[in-house]
Specification:
Elements (H helix, E strand, L loop, with lengths): L5 H4 L8 H14 L6 E2 L2 E5 L9 E2 L2 H13 L7 E2 L2 E3 L8 H10 L4 H35 L5 E4 L3 H4 L2 H4 L2 H6 L4 E4 H4 L6
Parallel strand pairs: 1-4, 2-5, 6-7
Antiparallel strand pairs: 2-3
C-alpha cells in the first residue's frame, strides 16, 4: 500500500487504535488495485531482544487484524493469505505456515520452505547491515559532537508511517538534523 484511504478507515466495525485505522486504510488501497490475494499474516509473537524467557506477544488488535478485516471488507477466505507467524520458539517456528501459503498459491511445500529459508536469510542479512550502519552512525555522532542528532523512538507503524508521524522526521532533516531510528543503534547487550 502507498496510501491510507479514508474509505477503508470508515469500514472499521468498531473504534480501534490509530495503527488499526491505518491498517484499514492501507487494506482499502490494496483492494482498489484489484489484487489476487491479500497477504494479512496473523502475527502472534516476535523474538524478544531481552534475555531469558520473555514472551514478546503482539497486541490483540494486531493479532486480530486478519480476522476483523475479513469481515469489515467482506472478503472471501480464499483471497486472504493468513499464515500464523509465531517466532516464540525461534525463526523456524513459522516455516510450515509459509509452506501452506506456497501450496495455496500453486507451489510445492518444498518450494515454500526454500522461499522461507531465503527470506529469513535476507532478513538476517538486512539486520546485520542495518546494525552495522547504526554502529557507523554512532561513530559519526562521537566524531561530530557539535552536530545535532535525534534518535527516533516508536513502534514502526507510528514512527515510520508518514500518516502517523505527521512528517516530524522530515521536519528535523529539513533543518539539517540527522534522524536515526532507535533500533538501528540499540544494543540489547549494552543494557
Amino acid at each position: 500500500s502507498t496510501r491510507i484511504l479514508a474509505e477503508g478507515i470508515a469500514k472499521q466495525e468498531s473504534n480501534y487504535c490509530f495503527p488499526a485505522e491505518i491498517a484499514h486504510g492501507a487494506i482499502q488501497d490494496i483492494l482498489d488495485q484489484n489484487i489476487d490475494y491479500l497477504f494479512l499474516p496473523h502475527f502472534r509473537d516476535m523474538p524478544s531482544l531481552e534475555e531469558g524467557t520473555v514472551h514478546a506477544c503482539m497486541c490483540p488488535l494486531v493479532q486480530g487484524l486478519p480476522f476483523f478485516a475479513r469481515h469489515a471488507f467482506g472478503l472471501d477466505d480464499s483471497r486472504i493469505l493468513r499464515p500464523l507467524v509465531s517466532f516464540k520458539h525461534g525463526w523456524e517456528a513459522s516455516r510450515v505456515a509459509f509452506e501452506e501459503v506456497a501450496v495455496k498459491l500453486g507451489f510445492s511445500r518444498v518450494e515454500g520452505a526454500a522461499a522461507y529459508q531465503r527470506a529469513m536469510g535476507e532478513y538476517h542479512r538486512f539486520l546485520s547491515a542495518y546494525q552495522a550502519l547504526g554502529q557507523k552512525v554512532l561513530e559519526e555522532v562521537r566524531a561530530n559532537p557539535d552536530r545535532a542528532y535525534v534518535a527516533l523512538l516508536g513502534r514502526p507503524y507510528n514512527a515510520f508511517t508518514a500518516d502517523a508521524n505527521m512528517g516530524i522526521p522530515r521536519k528535523f532533516t529539513s533543518q539539517g538534523v540527522a534522524v536515526i531510528p532507535y533500533d538501528m543503534i540499540f544494543d540489547p547487550a549494552a543494557e
